[in-house]
Amino acid sequence: MIANYGYKDGSGEYYISIDTDKCIGCAAERACLAACPNEMFEIITDDYDDEVAAIKQSFRRSLAFDCAECKPAAGYASLPCMTACTPGAVKHSW
Amino acid sequence: MYSAGIDMGSRTVKVVFVEELKVDGAPQLKWGVKGKHIMFPEDLDADQAADKAFDEALQAAGLTRDQVKRVVATGAGRKQVKFASEDVTEVSAGAKGAVFMCPAARTVIDVGAEEGRGIKADGDGKVVDFAGNEKCAAGAGAFAESMSRALQLSLKDFGEASLRSDKTIPMNAQCTVFAESEVVSLIHSSTPKEDIAKAVLDAVASRVTAMARRVGIEGDVALIGGMVHNVGFVQSLKTALGVDQVLLPEMPEYVPALGAALIAAEGK
Amino acid sequence: MADTAGEKKEYWRWQESCWIDESKDWRAAKIVTAGIDVGSVSSQAVVCVDGELYGFNSMRTGNNSPDSARNAIQGVLDKSGMKLEDIKYVVGTGYGRVNVPFAHKAITEIACHARGANYMGGNAVRTILDMGGQDCKAIHCDEKGKVTNFLMNDKCAAGTGRGMEVISDLMQIPIAELGQRSFDVDEEPNAVSSVCVVFAKSEALGLLKAGYTKNKVIAAYCQAMAERVVSLLERIGVEKEFFITGGIAKNPGVVKRIEKILGIQAVQTKIDSQIAGALGAALFGYTLMQKQGASAKAA
């Protein structure tokens, strides 16, 4: 399952998507939890009883601002969460 | 010789004239403000409004069209100004004007009714980088305006009320429309107005600060745009940025028009 | 099947309906389950007998979730002579799902809508759009109704029921009439360009000033709404069959425009589109009971 956390508003589209099929039985020992400087990730048991990473509810409506520091306007080569997730389950839409 | 900047907004047209100064021993003082003028176009078409505002401004400053070397336009309707030789974005004009007014500023935060953004500028007021949250009322003055209406306070009283609060209530709603209902339920649960006002202004400040962090906060921070007048917002912004002071330029409404006039004066 | 066509003059938010399938005898059923969807604006209770829809009740959400949940299920209980104890498993869903006092489990509305749509629209349904009072969901699912891709937007009012309420207020036209009126125009206008509801409001006022009729402004707004929803759907990929649930399904002004942009007709159903979440929850309950039964037998 691709879980898209985030939103689209007038200013743009801001989603962090997690491919739960790559997330189940994590091969990176849940490195996302520690990698995010804002501690935005958590492990949940989803509706199909799989233990997967998700973005905490309190961040889902403000990603454009919460991720701002990892995304300097001058450009960036990598993001901590995506780098930490070696199975490649985490993606940013913006 | 004079140069002019014209800021075509959706509700107002502003004109600023600058003149060349030659101050011995102070070579940095190259230009001074000759005059400023504001006009409310009401039902006028954009090009008529630009003409009328410019004529009024010339008259007020005691100038004629021939004396004005160049005109640069900015603002949402900048493309409509036929007599301008060039147009520049609000970002460029705002940064230029802000650094002229506050020479130590390298970070310019611009919060108008419709947008909020963080700009990094160099010593000449040239934009190095900027990040904004445009086309969404949540990161702009419109958010505060809308909430002050829900609280039945003027924007000025709203800002002052917020200064009387020392509480930090997080707002759950990000969207202006949803936040209105949240404010209404806070009112119903007898939350003091000043605490609600502070919660709202803190929310706008934290969003704008996030944008400023994207460009990297350097040097002094100057605030421009309509929110300059909101003392509560200025306080919330200082807290969010973690700085002791935020520079507030003189004649804040005219900063973009001034920036455009300076760009005209320096004309390449 | 429940046919609510006769009541469609009322705006969906205010329409409360209760229905049971008289042809079924719940007393003869092996497993009775219920799903309760406590939404921000309306709440629904659905009762299933042996995995088949038996009855539902749809009403406005009250001041608190527990009472809304109780009132919703009470409607079906009263009409059928059932007692709460007769229901073996209750699943709560929706925004107030963790506050359903008699629920055995809470499941997100995403999973429940997919499951409900799979039942209502058939197992060929792959794409589901749910537009509720304060959110919008785009879901892609497999033939079993299991979610394969989803997004939920509850951050921004644009593209939610609230967005429609705002224009209805502004135009001072009952929300239920907006859809029909949007087709009563001399020519289809361009969509309102602002996404943000706050800015779209000023834009709409500007259009009125510029001489647009109210209907034409509504048409421009409905088109913007449709374009916005389509952009959400495109993120998860649009595949046939396409099914629409929630209040939006009752606004032809938006639905027809969505269908036109996508070039796909939405699957029609006679079941009230608003019960999809609660129905899915009740079906989840049924599956869980079956599993429990199977493991009990094995032990």
From TrEMBL, chain A:
InterPro entries xrefs:
4Fe4S_Fe-S-bd
Q: Which domain of life is it from?
A: Bacteria
Domain 4Fe-4S ferredoxin-type per the UniProt entry, residue ranges: 14-46
**UniProt protein name:** Ferredoxin
Which species is this record about? Candidatus Desulfobacillus denitrificans
Lineage, broadest ranks: Bacteria, Pseudomonadati, Pseudomonadota, Betaproteobacteria, Candidatus Desulfobacillus
From TrEMBL, chain B:
**One Pfam family, short name:** BcrAD_BadFG
InterPro entries with a match to the protein in the record: ATPase_BadF, ATPase_NBD, CoA_E_activase_dom, Dehydratase_Activator_Redct
- ATPase BadF/BadG/BcrA/BcrD type domain span: 5-264
Q: Can the keyword Transcription be found in this entry's annotation?
A: no
> Any idea which GO molecular function terms this record carries?
iron-sulfur cluster binding; metal ion binding
- The protein's required cofactors: [4Fe-4S] cluster
Its keywords, alphabetically, are: Iron, Iron-sulfur, Metal-binding
Q: Which NCBIfam families match?
A: CoA_E_activ
Descriptive protein name: CoA activase
Automatic annotation (TrEMBL), chain C:
Ranges where the ATPase BadF/BadG/BcrA/BcrD type domain occurs: 35-285
Needed cofactors: [4Fe-4S] cluster
Q: Which Pfam families match?
A: BcrAD_BadFG (PF01869)
Indicate yes or no for the key word Electron transport: no
UniProt KW Nucleotide-binding keyword: no
One function term, GO molecular function aspect: metal ion binding
Q: Which InterPro entries match?
A: ATPase_BadF, ATPase_NBD, Benzoyl-CoA_Rdtase_bzd_qsu, CoA_E_activase_dom, Dehydratase_Activator_Redct
Q: Which UniProt keywords apply?
A: Iron, Iron-sulfur, Metal-binding
Q: Which CDD domains match?
A: ASKHA_NBD_benz_CoA_BzdQ
NCBIfam families reported for this sequence: benz_CoA_bzdQ, CoA_E_activ
Protein name per the record: Benzoyl-CoA reductase, bzd-type, subunit Q
